[in-house]
Write a structure and sequence with these properties.
The protein is mainly beta and about 700 residues long. It is about 5% helix and about 55% strand.
Length: about 700
C-alpha cells in the first residue's frame, strides 16, 4: 500500500513532537536519523519545501566556535553572541531577530530547550549543554504549517538527536588561542540488544576580551537503550554546569574616540553561572498497523546572570548593572500514534498525539546590583504554568502525483504568578488561562519524478512571559503597565519548489509570509511590558545541496526577508522592525580524500534597520571558517579549526539605544542619555588544534 510506504519513510508526520523517539532509542547499528546522503528531503515524501534533515557529514565537518553554532546547519539560520559564551546564542531567521529563541523551537533528544517566562528572555534556548560530537541528526521545519509544531515554532523548529552508541570509544584534547582548552571522552558498550553510552566534557576559555572570560564548563551524558527497530526504550541522564565572565555590548562612540578598545568592557563584574540536570525516557513500538511513541522528561535548571547595557544612565552613582535569576523544574509527557488508513478508497496516514509541559519556577527575579551585590529588588516572582496540547493530522494520497494533509492543533495554557516583592508584588500577581485552536493544511504536486511543488498554510503561536499577562504596574516607574496576551497567534503561508534529479543534487526554493497579531512583549531586562504592534514578514529562500563525486560536497543557502509593523505608525516612529534580519547568504564546501576531510564555510548577514524609522542600519558581516581532520592511523586523528579566517572586523550584534558611561557622567555630557550604536564584536582570527585517540 502507498500509505504503509509513506508511513515508513516520513518521520516528520509522526515523530517531530517526540524528537523522533524511535530514532533516538534504537541501538546505533540501525540509526535512521543519521542522514548520510545529501538529501534534505525526498521527492514524494516531503510535505513542504522548507523542511529537511541535514546530512551528518555536513554539520559534523563544519567548525563550531560555540556548541549552539550547530543550528546554522538549518538553512537561513544565523547564531551569534552578544555576551559571554555561557549565555544562549542570539538567533536570526526569516525576518526575525529571535533574541535567544523566541519563535524558534529547539529540542535536544526530544526535550524542549526553550524556556517560557525565563528570567532573561522569553523562549531562552541555551544550547551550551550540547556535546556536538554526539549529535546524530539535525532535522528542521519552517513555518506554522504542521499540527505537531507547538510553542515557539512560528519561524521554525530544529530537532537535534544524540547517538545511542559509538563505533569505538575515544578521547579528544583541543587547545586554542586565548587559553581555550577542551577535553572530551566518550564510549559505549553493547551486549545483545542493550547499550550503555557515556560521555564527559570539560572546557575552559578566556576569549579575546580585555576582561578574561574565565569560562569553566562541565558536561556529562549517560544513556541506556534497549530493544530492536520494532520495539525499544531508552533512558538518558544529562548534567551541565558553567560559570563565566562576560563582556556585553559597548558604545561604539567610545571605541571610535579611543576611550575603549573593541574588546573592552564598561563593567568587569558582568557574568553568570548556570546549571542544567535532566532525566528523560522514551519508548516506541513500530508495527505494520502503526507506530506509537511515548516519552517523558524532568529538568532541573538554575540560572544567574549579571548584565549592564546602559552603564551609568539610570544610576549615575552605583551604575546600572542588574541580576536576573531563574530557578525551576520542568516536567513533561508526550505521546504520538500514527497508522495507515483509507478515506473514500484513498490511502492515507492518520497521526495524532498530545503533550503536557509543566514549569514550576521557584524564583524568577530581577534585581539592581553593583559589582554583583544586590541593591534593590525590581521583581521576585514564583510562577507555575502548564501547557496542555493535542494535535491530529490526516495525510491523503489523492493520486500518484497529488497528496495533501489537513491538521488541527489545540493548546491550553494555565498560569499562576505570585509576586513576592513587597511593594508591587501583590498588585502584579494573578492567575489565568489562554487557549488557541490552530488549523493547518498542505498540498504537494509531483510535476515530474524530479520536480515537486508545495502549498502550505497554517496558524501557530508563541507564548509570552506570563508575568506580562498579570502585570498591572511597572515596578520601576510605578505607572500603569499594559498586559500582554499569554498566547500570540501567527498566520503563515508558503509556496515552494523542489528539484532533485538524483540523490546527489537537491535545489529548493520557498516564498513565504508570516503575520503576527501582536508584538507586545514582556521585557525581562526591565521587569515590565513593552508596546508592540501587529507585524508582517515575507521573504524568499533557496537551498542547494550538491555532491560532486566521492570527494566534493557543495552547499549554498540564500534568504531575503522583509519585516514591517502593520498599520499607521505612532508619531515619531516608523514601521520597520528593528534588528529584523533582511539578507543571509551561506555557502560551504567539504572535501574528503582518504584520511583527510576539510571544510570551508562562508556566512554573510546583510545590513538591517536598528530603529523603526530605518535611519540607523547595522553593518554587514562576513565570516569565513575553516576546519580539517586528518586520520594519521586507525587510532589517531588530528584536527585544525581556524575561525574568522579572513580576519574581518565585524560585529556579532549591533543595537541602537541611549546609554551613559562613567566618564560621560563626570563630564556632564549625559543628560537623558546619549543615543548611539552599541556593538559586540566578532572574535578575531583564532585557531584550535585537536588530537583524538580512538581505542
Amino acid at each position: 500500500m502507498k500509505a504503509s510506504i509513506r508511513l515508513a519513510r516520513q518521520p516528520w508526520m509522526f515523530g517531530a513532537l517526540l524528537g523522533s523517539a524511535a530514532a533516538c532509542a534504537q541501538p546505533v547499528h540501525l540509526p535512521p536519523i543519521e542522514v548520510s546522503g545529501p538529501r534534505d528531503a525526498a521527492i514524494g515524501t516531503a510535505d513542504s519545501a522548507s523542511e529537511g534533515a541535514v546530512e551528518k557529514a555536513s554539520f559534523q565537518a563544519r567548525p563550531k566556535l560555540r556548541p549552539g553554532d550547530i543550528v546554522e546547519a538549518v538553512p537561513g539560520v544565523v547564531a551569534t553572541q552578544h555576551s559571554g559564551d555561557g549565555k544562549a546564542n542570539q538567533y536570526f531567521l526569516r525576518g526575525f531577530n529571535l533574541d535567544h529563541g523566541t519563535d524558534f523551537a529547539i529540542t535536544v533528544d526530544g526535550m524542549p530547550v526553550n524556556m517560557p517566562s525565563h528570567g532573561h528572555g522569553q523562549g531562552f534556548a541555551d544550547l551550551n549543554f550540547l556535546i556536538p560530537d554526539l549529535v546524530s541528526g539535525v532535522r528542521y521545519r519552517k513555518g506554522p504549517y504542521f499540527a505537531d509544531g507547538g510553542d515557539f515554532a512560528l519561524a521554525g523548529t530544529a530537532s537535534l538527536d544524540y547517538v545511542s552508541a559509538l563505533d569505538a570509544p575515544f578521547s579528544e584534547v583541543t587547545l586554542g588561542a586565548n587559553n581555550f582548552r577542551r577535553l572530551l571522552a566518550a564510549g559505549s558498550r553493547t551486549v545483545q540488544d542493550q547499550t550503555w553510552l557515556g560521555a564527559i566534557e570539560l572546557e575552559g576559555n578566556n576569549g579575546p576580551w580585555d576582561t578574561p572570560e574565565r569560562l569553566r564548563k562541565a558536561n556529562a551524558v549517560l544513556r541506556y537503550s534497549q530493544g530492536s527497530p520494532v520495539r525499544g526504550l531508552s533512558i538518558t541522564a544529562m548534567a551541565y554546569q558553567s560559570r563565566w565572565n562576560s563582556t556585553d555590548q559597548i558604545p561604539e562612540r567610545l571605541v571610535d574616540s579611543g576611550e575603549l578598545s573593541r574588546f573592552g568592557s564598561l563593567n568587569t563584574t558582568d557574568g553568570g553561572k548556570t546549571r542544567r540536570l535532566s532525566l528523560s525516557g522514551k519508548w516506541f513500538d513500530n508495527s505494520p498497523e502503526g507506530q506509537t511513541q511515548l516519552s517523558g522528561y524532568v529538568i532541573d535548571y538554575r540560572f544567574d546572570l549579571f548584565s549592564d547595557f546602559t552603564y551609568f544612565l539610570n544610576n549615575p552613582e552605583q551604575g546600572d548593572q542588574f541580576e536576573q535569576t531563574d530557578r525551576r523544574r520542568v516536567f513533561g509527557l508526550q505521546g504520538t500514534h500514527s497508522r495507515p488508513n483509507s478515506i473514500g478508497g484513498l490511502d492515507g496516514v492518520l497521526s495524532f498525539g498530545g503533550s503536557w509541559r509543566g514549569d514550576r519556577i521557584g524564583e524568577v527575579g530581577l534585581y539592581n546590583t553593583a559589582a554583583r551585590e544586590r541593591i534593590s529588588t525590581v521583581r521576585n516572582d514564583k510562577v507555575q504554568q502548564d501547557l496542555f496540547s493535542m494535535h491530529a493530522q490526516q495525510l491523503v494520497n489523492f493520486s500518484e502525483r497529488w497528496r495533501g494533509y489537513v491538521g488541527l492543533r489545540g493548546d491550553l495554557l494555565r498560569y499562576d504568578v505570585q509576586g513576592r516583592e513587597p511593594l508591587y508584588g501583590p498588585i502584579n500577581s494573578g492567575r489565568g488561562h489562554d487557549s488557541l485552536v490552530s488549523p493547518k493544511a498542505g498540498l504537494a504536486f509531483t510535476v515530474t519524478p524530479t520536480h515537486e511543488l508545495y502549498l502550505n498554510v497554517g496558524t501557530g503561536f508563541h507564548s509570552n512571559d506570563v508575568r506580562g499577562a498579570t502585570i498591572n504596574v511597572d515596578p520601576t516607574s510605578g505607572l500603569p503597565a499594559d498586559r500582554v496576551p499569554a498566547l500570540v497567534k501567527g498566520r503563515g503561508a508558503e509556496i515552494g519548489w523542489r528539484f532533485q534529479p538524483s540523490e546527489d543534487f537537491s535545489l529548493t526554493t520557498a516564498l513565504w509570509q508570516l503575520r503576527l497579531d501582536s508584538e507586545l512583549v514582556y521585557v525581562g531586562d526591565a521587569g515590565t511590558t513593552e508596546p508592540g504592534r501587529a507585524s508582517s514578514r515575507r521573504g524568499i529562500e533557496a537551498t542547494l545541496r550538491w555532491k560532486l563525486g566521492s570527494r566534493w560536497r557543495f552547499e549554498a543557502d540564500a534568504a531575503i526577508s522583509r519585516a514591517r509593523f502593520r498599520g499607521l505608525a505612532p508619531e515619531g516612529e516608523g514601521n520597520y522592525i528593528d534588528n529584523a534580519v533582511e539578507r543571509v547568504f551561506a555557502a560551504g564546501v567539504i572535501y574528503t580524500e582518504g584520511p583527510l576531510t576539510a571544510s570551508l564555510r562562508l556566512r554573510y548577514m546583510g545590513p538591517r534597520a536598528l530603529d523603526t524609522l530605518n535611519t540607523v542600519r547595522s553593518r554587514a558581516t562576513t565570516l569565513l571558517n575553516f576546519g580539517a581532520r586528518y586520520a594519521v592511523n586507525k587510532q589517531l586523528t588530528l584536527g585544525l579549526d581556524v575561525f574568522n579566517l579572513a580576519g574581518r572586523k565585524g560585529n556579532d550584534i549591533e543595537y541602537f539605544y541611549a546609554s551613559c558611561s562613567a566618564g560621560e557622567v563626570a563630564r556632564g555630557a549625559c543628560g537623558d542619555g546619549i543615543d548611539g550604536r552599541h556593538i559586540h564584536p566578532m572574535e578575531p582570527r583564532s585557531a584550535r588544534v585537536s588530537a583524538r585517540w580512538t581505542f
